[in-house]
Amino acid sequence: MKSIKVLLPLFLTFSLITSCSNDDSKVEIIEEDKTETTAPNSLKSFTVDQNGDIYSFYFHYYDNKLDKLAYVNELNKITYYSFTYNASDKIEETIKYEMNPNATSVDFGDSNNFSNVESSIVHSYHGNNTLKEIAGYIYAYNNNGLTSQIMGLNMFPTVNIFYDASNKIEKTETFENEYDPGFKQFLQFDNNNNPFYYLFDEFGFVIDKNLTGVSYNGSTTTSIGRIIKDLYCICPYNITEKKEYDESQWPSYTVDYTYNTGDYPVEGVFIAENLDTQVQTVRYTINFDYY
Hints:
Blueprint: H1 27-30, E1 43-50, E2 53-62, E3 65-72, E4 78-85, E5 91-99, E6 114-125, E7 131-134, E8 137-141, E9 147-152, E10 158-163, E11 169-175, E12 183-189, H2 197-203, H3 209-212, H4 223-228, H5 230-233, E13 239-244, E14 253-259, E15 265-273, E16 280-290
Antiparallel strand pairs: 1-2, 1-16, 2-3, 3-4, 4-5, 5-6, 6-7, 7-8, 8-9, 9-10, 10-11, 11-12, 12-13, 13-14, 14-15, 15-16
């Protein structure tokens, strides 16, 4: 495993396409007699507070790899996921489990929390282990090996990604369909470690609206909103400002972070400004916890 560089904005794109009900399949996710091992500053959990609605994610590792994930939505409903890996230690399949409706904790070792396999999604990679496709979204890369485009299987939605001289994302253009002129985002980043990038870079792990129920970038729940969030995982730094070409439709925001001694954020406060009143309001807050 590479030394930790910079940790993942989650963004696991779930388009749940297969289902099965094999009781034997749940054994792997509830076997907790193994020793948990993680690299320093591995993301343990993060919690989103969006106007009083709380969303939480809890990560479990085994043998220095992301092993399981528990997601708790604003209604305190718990959903569990596990991951299988290919020979290159990249996530090959994400498996969603039916939740026991009586489960009241995210304890991975409590077999009563789990039921049958509900569905799964397969990840595919290029020969150099860069992400090729997940849940119907295709990734393309520029000559520097940086993600230059994220596109749906039917060409839309499409996000084109542009970088500055320092290889930070400078601007994106998003097209919903063939007749959409697209809208532009202009992005600014800090020089600190992104707590999601490591999971994306190391394991190919991403999250989107289908999993979270949370819009991290303030976008809508459309496919555009889902695909844009992938931009956070492909940058090793934390986004500090997003400006929209059409602010009347896509509000801009800034982010204030506090960091730990390893330059990983422990809190991010997303602040939007009302275009009419110029009043700044907190849109949501994210708190990070590490091993």
